[in-house]
Write a structure and sequence with these properties.
342 residues, alpha/beta
Length: 342
């Protein structure tokens, strides 16, 4: 199903059904939305081609003979309303039961126990904001804002943080996010640590990330270095199997919503609204339309973030990672093909 067909379906079904959910009402209002500007502009006709293609507002201005400022206002209103209403349905904050289901998904699909999600960040290309100097200029030598996201094993986003400066690293963005604050004050409703068969200490539930993230009680990262023992290489391989779900989610996002294939040429606040809208629509489409496998293989228009090398962890945190590393080479935790991959 294409993006255009999806929105046509939403509008058609919304007109049929008398009892609409709040998300369907918003989509119906703004995409069917016929009374916007006296019915002269059918938003459902051109809005999908803005988010779902590389067309910019100038292209749509000439294609549909609508003023650029009018287009800009409509796009921003639609993006804001989609996020305000649909985020609570398509990207709700998980409770303890939801976290356990997410962990079961990673155990089943990635053979990684007690995983709450895979976390990573990507640079979203933008045009240079006026008067911003080098705040948004990243180490890849282009201007960007940062999308930090957590994904589950179904390629759905469970948390996003959008709008950090392009010059910032993954770790600093993560530690300035609301997710980190909730981790620190224990308000995420994460399940209590428990035993894993074959490990004689309580293992906490944790997010998995790459080398850019600092090791902590609820965040696991790979062992650093090139010349590692087999036990550490095995752990890095098993962690990468879990972490790839967020990378694949970014691939699906960027290939479905092809506005990410070019620099977003609007102001920063508007660009943030667009990114948040695309992320919540990603979950909406993922639940109803699935995904194309080929989209998971490449990420177009998004770049990895810089690493912060000054990251330290105390020994009590390291022992959880070491315990999992030993578990992955034990009879209880190993998988048959892992030695061929390291």
């Amino acid at each position: 199903m294409s993006i255009d067909e999806l929105f046509v379906l939403i509008v058609r079904e919304s007109k049929k059904a008398p009892n609409l959910s709040s998300s369907q009402c918003v989509v119906f209002l703004f995409f069917a939305g016929v009374d916007l500007w006296h019915g002269l502009i059918d938003v459902s006709f051109w809005f999908p081609s803005y988010l779902g293609s590389t067309n910019n507002l100038h292209d749509l201005h000439y294609a549909y003979r609508i003023g650029r400022s009018t287009l800009s206002n409509i796009v921003r209103i639609v993006c804001q309303q989609i996020w305000d209403v649909m985020s609570s349905e398509c990207m709700p904050t998980p409770n303890e039961g939801d976290w356990k289901k997410i962990a079961e998904g990673f155990q089943h699909r990635a053979n990684f126990p007690h995983c709450l999600g895979a976390v990573d960040g990507k640079h979203i290309r933008i045009t240079k904001p006026p008067g911003s100097a080098s705040l948004y200029f990243n180490y890849k030598h282009f201007y960007s804002i940062v999308l930090l996201a957590v994904a589950d094993s179904n390629y759905r986003f469970t948390y996003i943080h959008v709008g950090s400066f392009g010059k910032d690293s993954d770790s600093s963005i993560f530690k300035n996010s609301s997710l980190w604050d909730k981790l620190q004050n224990n308000s995420l409703n994460i399940p209590s640590p428990n035993f894993i068969p074959g490990i004689n200490i309580l293992i906490p539930y944790a997010f998995v990330g790459d080398e850019a993230f600092g090791l902590s009680t609820n965040v696991l990262r790979p062992y650093a270095g090139k010349y590692l023992q087999d036990i550490k290489r095995t752990f890095n391989y098993r962690l990468s199997r879990a972490r790839r779900y967020v990378e694949c989610s970014f691939g699906i996002l960027s290939n479905k919503w092809r506005i990410f294939h070019r620099p977003i040429d609007v102001n920063v606040e508007f660009a943030i609204d667009i990114v948040k809208c695309c992320c919540v629509l990603h979950n909406f489409v993922r639940d109803r339309d699935g995904f194309k496998f080929d989209d998971t293989l490449t990420i177009t228009g998004m770049e990895d973030l810089d690493y912060d090398n000054n990251l330290y962890a105390n020994r009590s945190v390291n022992r959880y990672r070491d315990a999992l590393a030993n578990y992955f080479v034990s009879e209880d935790g190993q998988i048959s093909w892992q030695n061929e991959k390291i």
